Known about the structure:
This protein is of the alpha/beta class. The chain contains 10 helices and 6 strands; from the N terminus they run αααβααβααβαβαβαβ. The protein has 2 domains: 1-47, no CATH class; 48-255, 3-Layer(aba) Sandwich (Rossmann fold), CATH 3.40.50. It has a 4-stranded parallel β-sheet. It has a two-stranded antiparallel sheet with strand order 3-4. Helix 5 (114-131) crosses helix 7. The radius of gyration is 19 Å and the shape is globular. It binds zinc ion (2 copies). The site of one zinc ion has 8 residues, from helix 2.
Amino acid sequence: MNGREWISKKWNELLDLVYPPSLYCISCGRIIDSSRTYSLCNDCMASVSWAAGRCCIKCGRPLSDNDPGDLCFGCAGREKTGRPFAFDKGHACAGYGAAAQSVIFALKYGGRSDIGDVLGEILYDRLTAEYGDSLSEIYDFVVPVPVHRDRKERRGYNHADLMADRFCALAGMRCENSVLIRTKPTAPMKGLTPGQRASNIRGVFEVRRHRLDDVCGASVLLVDDIFTTGATVDEAARTLKECGALRVDFISFAAAGDMVHSG
Ligand SMILES: [Zn+2]
Ligand SMILES: [Zn+2]
C-alpha cells in the first residue's frame, strides 16, 4: 500500500465513523441522505434494471422482446427436453447489470453485511407486489441457500441468511437456516459452462435428518442473491423435493438476462 492509498483508506475509515454506512449509496458509495429508498442514490436507483416488464413464468428471468412466449429460451429448452427445473416458480427483483453487481459484490466480498438488510427489504417489496402481504399463507418457511461452512467462516456470514432474516422479519415468517446444509465445498461457479455448473453443484445439499419432518409436505421459499444458470437453486429445490417438499419457489435479488438465442 503506498502513501496515498493508506491516506485514502484512513480517510474512509474516518468517514465510516462520522457517517454510518447507511448514509452511503450501497452501489456507488456516494453520500446520500437517509430518506433514500433502499439506500441507493438517484443515479443508481435509475440504473438498476428493476424487473417491471415481462418475466419468464418459470424462472422469473426478465424476458427480452425477442422471447416470443411466456418462457425464457433456457426454460423452453428444458421443457422441450423433459428436464424442467425442480423448483416451481422463480422471482427476481432486478436484472443483473453493473449497479446490481456492485451491490452484490459489496455484500459478498466487501464485508458490507448491512446490505443484506436492504436486499431483504427489496425481496419483500417484490413478493408482496406479486402476492399481497399474506406470504405466510403461501409458504410455511423461508430457506436461505446455504454456503459451505468454511466459506461462511471466512466471510463471517452467509449473505443469503442476512437477506432472508430481514425478509422474514418484514413478512412475519420463519427463517430456517439449519434445515438445508451444504455438505461439500464447491469451486466458484464463475467461468464455468452451464453443464459444468450443474455437475459442480450436484449432490452438495442435504436436508438435516432431524428436520425431515419439517420439509415433508411443506411449501418452501428459497432465497439467494443472484440467479444465473439456475444450477444452484435448482439443486437446492431438487434436494427439498426429494425429501417431500410439495412446493419450492425462490426469490433472488438479481437475475441474468435470457441466454442469447443463436439460431
Ligand atoms: Zn449510487
Ligand atoms: Zn426461465
